[in-house]
Design goal:
The protein is mostly beta strands. 0% of the residues lie in helices and 60% in strands.
């Protein structure tokens, strides 16, 4: 019905930048809210940022001032611009659409497969 695919992860040095993308594909759907989560080995999944369809944003305290979430509704794509990266930002980053409306079917919670971000010198 709806597939979320993250991309843009990789290896970056501390202080560097990376831009993640989450592309939603399928047909007959509307995504109102999109979120980024991350999970490091041995750690709990952590909420990073969220954005509504109208562009309202919220961020975890750990990334405020460094990360920027955005979306292009026409292209069904969400982005996470990550600046001034720190080693503690190292994690698998996941895209989430918690309330995607699939026409004629219902509301679903979709997750992507994740993209790895490693911040190391």
């Amino acid at each position: 019905q709806v597939q979320l695919v993250e991309s843009g992860g990789g290896l970056v040095q501390p202080g560097g930048s990376l831009r993640l993308s989450c592309a939603a594909s399928g047909s007959g759907f509307t995504i109102y809210t999109m979120r980024w989560f991350r999970q490091a080995p041995g750690k709990q999944r952590e909420w990073v940022a969220r954005i509504t369809r109208t562009g309202s944003t919220d961020y975890a305290d750990s990334v405020k001032g460094r990360f920027t979430i955005s979306r292009d509704n026409a292209k069904n794509t969400m982005f996470l611009q990550m600046n001034t990266l720190k080693p503690e930002d190292t994690a698998m980053y996941y895209c989430n659409a918690p309330g995607a409306v699939v026409y004629g079917r219902g509301v679903y919670d979709y997750w992507g497969q994740g993209t790895q971000v490693t911040v190391s010198s």
